[in-house]
Amino acid sequence: MPFTTANQQVIAKFLPAPALEVFCKAATQAEQDNKPYNDCVKAGWTAVGAAGWQKPATGKKWIRKDDPGGSSVHVDAPLGGARKKPKAEDDMTEKFDTEASVFKVDDSLGLVFGWAIVCNKAGEAYYDTQGDHIPEDSMLKAAADFMKNSRVAKDMHQGDEIGPVVFAWPMTAEIAKAMGIETETTGLMIAMLPPADILAKFKDGSYTGFSIGGDRVHDEEVAA
Fold first, then answer.
1. Side-chain-side CA neighbours of residue 131 (13 Å)
2. How far apart (Å, rounded) are the C-alpha atoms in residues 63 and 165?
């Protein structure tokens, strides 16, 4: 029996939909090559790892190696013009949330630096694990609104403000070229000033990223 997303409910508890598809494809191929069941399962997990997925530091669901996972600091901003890969109609939502990785913690200033939004990587549109892509023009508008009207962060989407975003820089391909900067990644770079307890979570690896979200202005579906 082929491995499918429908008959692998146990594996689905650990893998997001894109990773589960990778698992099933590899496991089914191994089965077609007359491999024993355990070897098929092993082939599936090996393919998932090779595709860039890894076990999370917390929680069950595996995450992309370049994504922060479920532990992050959240900021709110209206994001218009988001592009989404096609999904079932009942999967669409008016709320938007995307995540990106922290890449530096500065003890001397108490700042955490990282990408709040990733638009493109290596010249290709970047889609997060929810299948969302933020074009550079939409990111630029959201960044301007956020810095004028919000500039605050919350702990795991909850409660009151825990600290301000003190730096933000929208890095589009056009801006990078104008500034003489070479980069494979474009998006919104930020630095926030969290309280000591939250800074400690970034330092010890409990928190590994920022997420940014808000109300969608509109979606644009793109071909898979």
1. 18
2. 26
